[in-house]
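Our consortium's second objective concerns turning raw sequence data into structural hypotheses that experimental partners can test. To show how far this objective has progressed, the report includes one record in full. It was chosen at random from the queue rather than selected for favorable results. The single chain below, 299 residues long, was entered without modification.
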Amino acid sequence: MATPTAQTVKTQFVTSSSGIKFAYRRLGPSNGVPLLFLHHFRGTIDHWDPLLVNTIATKRPVILFDNAGIGHSTGPVDNTMLKMAQHVIEFLSLLSITEVDLLGFSQGGIVAPLVFLHANKGLVRKLILTGTQPTAGEGVREPEDRENVFKTAGQPTLTVDAFLWLFFGPSAASQAAGRAWWSRIHERTKETSGEDRVGYVSEGLTEDRAGVLALVEAFTKADDRAFAAEGSYDRLGEIDVPVLIANGHDVMIHPINSYVLWEKIPNAHLQLFPDSGHGFLFQFAEVFARRVEEFLDSW
């Protein structure tokens, strides 16, 4: 029997006490501390890069997860990062997982520290925060072209051209890597998996856009000090596990915010990737997978 890959693995479901049906996929060995992937704004488990996922899953358990209302999961989309984190904690409890590593990308990287801060001590072993930022606080900067970032990321239909600007650098090499990534994330099909793909949150919708509007509200609150009590910024010093922070030259989330995280988290390691953007982990998928392995195995 062939080993399941991101392109072929079957989607599983677990139902919460409130009736939310969480979708997830498990890959890799059955033993060991699993690495839970938390996705970006509007992304689903159908949009992870199989090259990154499969490379990591050759050596450790991997779980891909759709939060409430996202992708294959049911329920309303959460309108705060804290609610998203609480649903991650609930999901892990439903699977009886008592120790986990988290890889949060973009929005997922804002959620991941909140999971650590609100979960029982010992649940989260290590954090990997990629292309991300803390919630609002001193030194945290907005994107330099915030208006165009939100306009492009929030448009009804997300195209390869949108992602080439949002996720990748302007050089020929980075743009080529972006096109290769776009091709890879469409390798999972009904033919390879036996399952239908889903679009990005609110994909193709021009009127009933409750999902994407809830995500925008979550980002707006995360960027507002009025909601600091439910944020991460003031509590980053409480994160006492090893943390890997990584980014490229990011137009979506200012790269200085990676430095802010590194400065405030006691046991944090920071790595910046050249000639890349928000999606550096996809541009350098195999290189970053090795970096993840080194971090999870050694630090």
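The partners drew two points from this record. The two ends are 35 Å apart (CA to CA). The longest helix spans residues 81-94. Both points have been shared with the crystallography group to help prioritize constructs.
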